[in-house]
Amino acid sequence: MPEINEAYAPGTPCWVGLTAQDQRAAMDYYGTLFGWTGEVGPAEYGGYAVMEKDGRAVAGISPAMAPEGQPEPPHVWTTFLASDDADATARRISDAGGAVLFGPDAVGTLGRMVVASDATGAVFGVWDPQDFIGAGRVNEPGSVIWCDCNTRDLPAAAAFYEAALGLKAHRVDEASGDYLGLFTEAAPDRPVGGVGDMGDRFPPEVPPHWMTTFAVADLADTVATHREANGTVVQEPTRTPWGEMALLVDPWGAPFGAMQPGGS
User: Fold this and answer.
1) Is 8 within the bounds of a domain?
2) ω before 141 within 30° of 0 (cis)?
3) What is the pLDDT of residue 176?
4) Distance between CA 143 and CA 58 in Å, rounded?
5) CA-to-CA distance for 25 and 19, rounded, in angstroms?
6) Residue 175 has pLDDT above 70, yes or no
7) 135, part of any domain
8) In the chain, pLDDT over 90 holds for what percent of residues?
9) Which domain of life is it from (predicted)?
């Protein structure tokens, strides 16, 4: 389903947004890397830029703006999970041991937004759509192909996402180990995301977090372009059952994944 025209099922990753230290430079970098186009948005939306791939919305890039007296937010990608009632989802987040950091708040007539952290500390967003459903293209080069939560307490994270978002977490297959697929009520046989134990795969100072992975047509070319732009390669291209993957960090410090789909 590369093109999306209807609202996402609740719990499904439906949008990703980058809070950028240098919005214009980030737009240029990701535009070159993924073939995105976009313009700085109107002032009433804080200049938020909706980036497109082949005429369909794929991601957002906003300038980092701090409320008065607060520190500037980090340069980072945020995954937004779909909701059909942002207020009710916010209440469930709090009841499940998470923390609501922002919202629920209306974004004009586009929808209602929440930013929260789960019971293990991973930050994510919630999007309750009105005029804007989220990404209009997925699973194609230059668009999101996967989002997952990396946590240091897998049972707690799994319990949280079921209680707060209705996502059931279980192993996709016997080889998945400490990695669980996240399944919606609408599609109980197809994972919409995942949650995995960080273990020793990450340094101890790295907190729980959501990771965005983008599909690319040629991973070697993407990594070369990334390096030319002074990006960092944390994990060199590696073959997996789902395709070849690399873990990258953009020039300002935001990690993300890149995948060239295709089984090993």
Assistant:
1) no
2) no
3) 60
4) 6
5) 12
6) no
7) no
8) 78
9) Bacteria
Judged against a pLDDT cut of 70, whether residue 263 lies above it is answered with no
Task: Give the tokens for residue 235.
Answer: 């994990």
User: Facing residues of 60 across strands?
Assistant: 17, 50
Give the residue carrying structure tokens 């989002």. Answer: 147
Report the alpha-carbon distance of residue 132 to residue 180 in Å, rounded: 30
CATH code, domain with 102: 3.10.180.10
Q: Which domain holds residue 55?
A: 13-129
Helix, strand, coil tally for the chain in percent (to 5) = 20, 40, 40
**Residue 200 binned pLDDT confidence (cut-offs 50, 70, 90):** confident
> Among 14-28, 37-51, 128-142, which is the least confidently predicted range?
37-51
All residues at 6 or more sequence positions from 97 whose CB lies less than 8 Å from its CB, including other chains: 119, 156, 160
Domain count for the chain: 2
Tally the C-alpha atoms within 13 A of residue 45's C-alpha that lie toward its C-beta: 19
Q: Is residue 35 part of a domain?
A: yes
